[in-house]
Amino acid sequence: MHFEILVEGQTELTALSILMPKIVGDYDVPHTWCIHKHQGIGKLPEDLTAIPNKLDRSLLHNFPSKLRAYSKSMSDNEIIILLLDLDDVADCLAFKNEILSAKDYCFNEPNLLVRFAIEELEAWFLGDINAIKKAFVTSKTKLLNGYTQDSICGTWELLADIVHPGGFAKLNSFGKRSIRILEEKRKWAAKIAPNMNIENNESASFNCFKEGILNSIK
Questions:
Q1: Hey, CA dihedral for 74, 198, 15, 118, is it positive or negative?
Q2: Which end of the chain has less neighbouring CB within 10 Å, N or C?
Q3: How many other CB atoms are there within 10 angstroms of residue 22's CB atom?
Q4: 120-143 per-residue burial string, b: 16 or more CB within 10 A, e: under 16
């Protein structure tokens, strides 16, 4: 199976580059994948058949157009995976159905798997406390133990308080959308993901992602 994986940004690309071999085995033995990063989640266009704005490189803005392009030549041995954070969506099912409606405008029925990281990708890291402790020996255990899995609580901010000197307050001083914050998130992914035990993760959204992939190759 070949996986075309669409993600929001560099953090997701970094994490999945490490996690995919853990889930399906080494690259090209026999499965392959390509991970495409974007500039944030963005919004679905009102017209799902519209040509995307070239200046908007967000994931959802470009998704319907990319899905149509993939559908022209996809084989049964290829699948598209759309991975999104679900940090400010009230109705998960309605949002998923809205995304899936983009399939109605495709040339052929594409193989598509939509998965969410709830609340954010950092929830997957917090699902494996041992992986965090191995990556950051000075991590704050009390905060780790007090986390409710996949809760809407400001997930990346909590992880910052656990692993970053000065915590979220220090990072927030650089600005909410600063390059410094994005780079720190990428570093966390690079340090934590190699230590993750994918068979023992408490994040339901990670396990849903993993099982979706494994079911597609059975």
A1: positive
A2: C
A3: 14
A4: bbbbbbbbbbebbbebbeebeeee
Is 33:71 a contact under the CB 8 Å cutoff?
A: no
pTM of the predicted model, to two decimals?
Answer: 0.95
Bridge partner residues of 135 (DSSP): none
Backbone angles phi, psi at 3, to 5 degrees: -110, 125
Q: Are 74 and 110 in contact (CB under 8 A)?
A: yes
State the DSSP code for 202.
-
- If DSSP codes are grouped into helix, strand and coil, which group holds residue 83? strand
Pairwise CA distance, residues 112 & 157, whole Å? 31
Check if the beta carbon of residue 1 is closer than 8 Å to that of residue 20.
Answer: no
The single residue listed with the structure tokens 């656990």 is: 162
Band (pLDDT 50/70/90 cuts) for residue 218 is confident
What percent of the chain clears pLDDT 90, i.e. is strictly above it? 87
- Measured in degrees and rounded to the nearest 5, phi and psi for residue 4 equal -100, 110
